[in-house]
Design a protein that fits this description.
By secondary structure, the protein is an alpha+beta fold. It has a single domain, classed as Nucleoside Triphosphate Pyrophosphohydrolase (Alpha-Beta Complex), CATH 3.90.79. It has 6 helices and 11 strands. Strands 4, 5, 7, 8, 9, 10 and 11 form a 7-stranded mixed β-sheet that branches. Strands 1-6 form a two-stranded antiparallel ribbon. It has a two-stranded antiparallel sheet with strand order 2-3. Strand 2 and strand 3 form a beta hairpin. It is globular and about 60 Å long. This is Uridine diphosphate glucose pyrophosphatase NUDT14. Belongs to the Nudix hydrolase family.
Length: about 220
Amino acid sequence: MESIEELALGPCIASQYLRPFRLRYRQNGVSKLWDFMRAHDSVSILIFNISQQCFVVVKQFRPAVYMCEMEEQCPQYFENKTEESWCPLSDVLPASKGITYELCAGIVDQPELSLEEIACKEVLEECGYEVPVTSLKRITSSRSGVGLTGSKQTLFYAQVTDDMKSSEGGGQPEEGEMIEVVEIPLQDSMKFAYDETFPKTMGLIFSFMWFQSNIAPKLQEK
């Protein structure tokens, strides 16, 4: 992964991905305010390569994770931060502090495509496998970021083979994506899921557990 350069903390404005709002409401007679962000829904895909007996996940830099590490180790930058100014950060941590392991995923921002079509598109772009829409298995949907965005993520399962690999994946560089494809052997997957030295999402941990309960027993029967 690339190093971090010219880091600065600054104001947040609405974008095509996040729109900030403030909700005023009354609950059990008590007036409350709650700040939240409206974000796109998303899809995620648990990919299992049957040829290699491994899971295919992605590894990428997440600015929010990196800045949580920065706040923990360099709290002075956050103590008197104003929304109107940019604050250059000089004590830069290594980029590895913001790296996470995740399922292949993408936002739902193309209304002309079904969730399944978006999922297949993400698998091809990020991991390089051509997956037919009809072969996807829908696992479930859940709410993510319930305190901040409340967006819905739909989880799919895709079983692939080496013959379905058409590219190296890695995302779309023209959109600023820098994604590394990682293979997790099936026999090591649960150890990996609970190893806190590998930062990861709860969706990845849940999907590995789902696989062990729903797919692994069928593989053992063959």
